[in-house]
Design a protein that fits this description.
heterotrimer, A: 219 residues, mainly alpha, 9 helices, C: 42 residues
Chain lengths: 219, 236, 42
């Protein structure tokens, strides 16, 4: 059931891939705006590049997460899915994994933008990939859960960020710190502990949100 | 879903009265009787309101967490009424805590705010509580509102142990946890009095606020009025 | 500052205490008022 759900989500995302392009442009525009806000201070830009990357990714995620429930809201598809003889958790994890993949791709696409705009390059690409994968996982799990809730409400566009942002602050902090260490150097070897923290958050959120999802979409 | 019954006993007012008395007594002692601290001087007296507020705030969040779990397991809306109370009182105490902390920080650390782990995690939890209260305003169906608030509260409560342990885990600027071992005995009495004072006040607040939520739930869950023959005929 | 010891600062103490007292007082009164209103409108 999980693979079927995941396939459905990936198929939906592939069919709406032009929207992904728009979200990427939004993210890149955000990174550009951050650099304007700081001004032509190359040192400062490089120092805060990790923060800008993750902020841009976070803002873009509200678009993709909200969008991921668009199909379910039409023609009461959500109820239809619930009538299937399957565990709602399979649906949740299918959607969360798809959102996670989408956010990882978005994050990777924004890295060259960051390198160019902030002169924030690094050779430790594998470590950067790991951090992006773990950080977006921390966004995807609670994000999908709250997207499921708020998709059914009138004020969905304000409520999703309002609920999501405080929750993912620990994951955001850990991701920014870890990315910063990769870009600017890690003299005291702190990277491991930040990655450990991020992994712990991911574990907690992925299990807890899966357990609670069934109650969120029940009738 | 059963209709909640709302109590009309006088107990909350008793709690409020005792709480206010303890708080007045503890504050008097803390302000005028207890000695000034060695390094922070008289500014340290803020501890007698700040620490009790902190302790009781954590209790409020734990209470909200408990109500959320209780509702998800028992499906009795009286737990949602209590959850609403816990969320509101928790948000109030968190906001008060941040204000007191800022007032204490200015003369001692030189800044109103500092992004150190304890302050950051506390602010995160404050915003989480406000977010859940905002969510409740936008959901009209009381059952759905109750389920979603419970889910959101459980997720938000993960931050609470992080707040508590933040001063231990990271080299925080904030002081270590206040226990009888870390606080000198001359300061114990006003601290304990105020702690109980705020606790009893909080219990009174939670009871009263639960009743208000209970009345509203009664109105929302009430069956629609039955039409008489004439009115029904008009609609047909 | 002499030797890192804080001197004075009573205005901070008074602000903190009055803020706390005001918050509890106003919240308590608002609860009692709201409760009376809810009960009256039943």
């Amino acid at each position: 059931m999980l693979t079927a759900a995941l396939r459905k989500e990936l198929l939906l995302q592939w069919r709406t891939r032009s929207q992904m392009m728009a979200v990427f442009v939004f993210g890149a525009a955000a990174l550009l705006l951050f650099s304007f806000a700081i001004g032509p201070n190359t040192e400062a830009l490089r120092t805060f590049s990790a923060g800008f990357l993750w902020l841009g990714l976070l803002l873009s995620s509200t678009l993709t997460l909200a969008e991921s429930f668009h199909a379910e809201m039409e023609n009461r598809a959500l109820e239809g899915l619930l009538l299937l003889p399957s565990d709602p958790r399979a649906l949740y994890y299918g959607k969360t994994i798809a959102n996670w993949l989408q956010l990882t791709l978005l994050g990777l696409a924004l890295v060259p933008v960051m390198v160019v705009l902030y002169d924030a390059g690094t050779t430790q690409l594998l470590k950067l990939l790991l951090i992006i994968v773990l950080g977006t996982a921390g966004l995807a799990a609670p994000g999908t859960l709250y997207a499921a809730m708020t998709a059914q409400l009138r004020a969905k566009q304000t409520l999703l960020p309002l609920l999501l942002f405080p929750l993912i602050v620990p994951a955001l902090l850990a991701s920014v710190k870890a990315t910063s260490l990769v870009i600017l150097g890690d003299p005291m070897g702190q990277l491991k502990s930040w990655i450990g923290l991020l992994s712990a958050f991911d574990l907690i959120y992925w299990s807890l949100c899966g357990v609670l999802y069934g109650r969120v979409v029940e009738e | 879903m059963e209709m909640p019954r709302v109590s009309t006993s006088r107990t909350p007012y008793v709690f409020l009265a005792i709480g206010a008395a303890c708080l007045l007594a503890g504050s008097y002692i803390g302000l005028f009787v207890a000695p000034a601290e060695q390094y922070m001087g008289n500014v340290q007296r803020i501890m007698y309101v700040h620490v009790p507020t902190a302790w009781n705030w954590m209790i409020a969040v734990l209470f909200a967490f408990g109500c959320a779990i209780a509702f998800l397991f028992k499906s009795d809306v009286k737990w949602d009424a209590r959850l609403e109370a816990g969320l509101e009182v928790g948000a109030l105490l968190a906001f008060l805590l941040c204000c007191q902390g800022a007032i204490w920080a200015k003369p001692t650390w030189g800044v109103w705010w500092d992004w150190d782990p304890r302050l950051t995690t506390t602010a995160v939890l404050l915003f989480s509580l406000l977010g859940i209260l905002a969510l409740r305003r936008f959901v009209e169906d009381p059952i759905k509102r109750a389920i979603w608030s419970s889910v959101a509260t459980i997720i938000a409560s993960i931050d609470l142990p992080i707040v508590y342990m933040s001063v231990k885990w990271w080299n925080s600027l904030h002081q270590q946890q206040s226990t009888p071992q870390t606080v000198s005995s001359q300061f114990h009495l006003p601290l304990r009095l105020n702690a109980f004072g705020v606790l009893f006040l909080m219990i009174g607040f939670l009871m009263l606020r639960s009743r208000i939520a209970g009345y509203r739930l009664q109105q929302e869950l009430a069956a629609p009025p039955v039409l008489t023959g004439e009115e029904a005929g008009e609609l047909a | 500052m002499t030797e890192g010891i804080v001197t004075g600062g009573w205005e901070y103490v008074w602000t903190a205490y009055s803020l706390t007292a005001a918050a509890f007082l106003i919240y308590g009164v608002s609860l009692i008022t709201r409760l009376r209103k809810e009960r009256a409108s039943k």
